[in-house]
Predict the structure.
Amino acid sequence: MINEDVLKKVCTLSRLRLLEAESAEMLDQMSRIIAHFDKLKEVSTEGVEPLYTAVEMKNVWREDEVFQLTTPKSLMKLAPDEQEGQVKVPQVVK
Amino acid sequence: MSNWDVVIGLEIHAQLQTDSKVFAPDSAGYSKHANENISEISLGYPGSLPTVNRMAVEYSIKIGLALNCNIKKNSVFARKHYFYPDLAKGYQISQFELPLCEDGSIDFMLDDKNVTVGIERAHMEEDAGKSSHKGGYSLIDYNRAGVPLLEIVSKPDMTTSKQAAEYARTVRNVLRYLEVCDGNLEEGSMRCDCNVSLKPKGQKELGTKVEIKNINSFRFIEKALDFEIQRQASLLENNESISQETRLYDSTKNKTFSMRSKEEAMDYRYFPDPDLLPLEVSDELIESIRKNLPELPLEKKERFKKDYEIPDYDASVLTSDKDLAFYFEESAKASKNPKATSNWIMGDFLKSLKESQLSFEDLKVSPKDLGLLVQLIDKGEISGKMAKQVFADMWKSGESPKAIVKSKGLSQISDPEEVKSIVEGVVSAHPGQLAEYKSGKNKLFGFFVGQVMKESKGQANPELVTKFLMEKLKS
């Protein structure tokens, strides 16, 4: 069941801040999504093996060889901010 | 602690020594500069596809087999989601429902008792990047992001901090024997998280568990657990409850402190990673890895006891490290006296090794030369006391024991006639002391030994000196 408390927890975990109006909308949407899964749950899956992939392939290996795909410099250019060659991000630990 | 049963389980992360990362071809090695070993795959750029490093799978199977696990023929990679910038993708690739290895166990000896610890599972995953917190912002180096790890989860089978530390040492020893992980806690190539809970003595149901992270030495495993057991016991004795949380160990304060509580615990939203295909390993692959497993510490220990006829204690010490075991075997071959060789290795050798902090590859003394030193003592060419001096010189210079004995003129006089004549000379040069000795002053025996040693510059064979002195003084 989705209620105010669950929504609050989900927001904390996903680092989201919702306005009151958004909260109401989200509650409604999420409740409908959950209800849809409850509907799916009604299907009997007895004797059905869990499916982990829809692709009928297995074991695409790579040998343990080092090579460079894209130059690190060009990747670093895409970082939001950089300092001393490191990616600079907002404070994560207080 | 008598009112409580302690329950401890360990999670060990072993960094696998592959050349490239587990899902990307970037180097997994050390790099001087930040963000050098990165690619669109390890940074999780949209559209990039991870592929599994075959070597990382083989190493993981190797460890699984050495820990007596069942290797699952079918396993699945899963995404473990968390919001933390040390992995740019927003999730870590790990294994959840179907890990590669399950249901193993490992044995070790502690205080003369065999301890068996069960292994719940061992699963493959990728390491995260390294973050440095600068106050106000954080800096991230992704060189380590994607380096292969095997997480080895023990069953909650341990009851003391000592057992936990010994279990971790045993696992490290196995990893090093397998040559798949260098097991360095300080440098983080092996990491240990400890789970500990207390319950009233005899109760079946487990108490609330606390996880301790940030432990970077075997000694700290013991200390952190001791602190935590004490902390939980005093809370429980005051009828306070334990909160399920993750705590960090601070070795400088020898304390654990709360890092995050259950309320903040993350919901990892695991699901099978659609970018990676299920992993299927054939019986042939598992068997070929099993066949090529090296001799493991316990097997080696048993063989040492049987082949070299050395005591259990010696065999344990000598097999506690792969390089040390190899050194002993080579030395014993040269000396042809395994027990004396073992004594030398456990004594002067390990003492010098510890003091110098050298690694085996930097040693100047070859195992063969140590064996030859033992042989020189056995042949009576030098005394045990001289050998200590020779060994100290060998350690410094790397010269052969024979060369040192020769250049220092240390060789022992073991010719009976020569020793006898020195003894006779000394006795007749001290008629006063001889008379006193004969009148009952037995203590003077030591005086005569000293004089003979002085006369022979310490080179007379002590056994012969005693023998001839006894004869001479009695007559």
User: Anything to note?
Assistant: Helices of chain A lie at 4-13, 20-41, 72-76. The mean pLDDT of chain A is 88. The two ends of chain A are 33 Å apart (CA to CA).
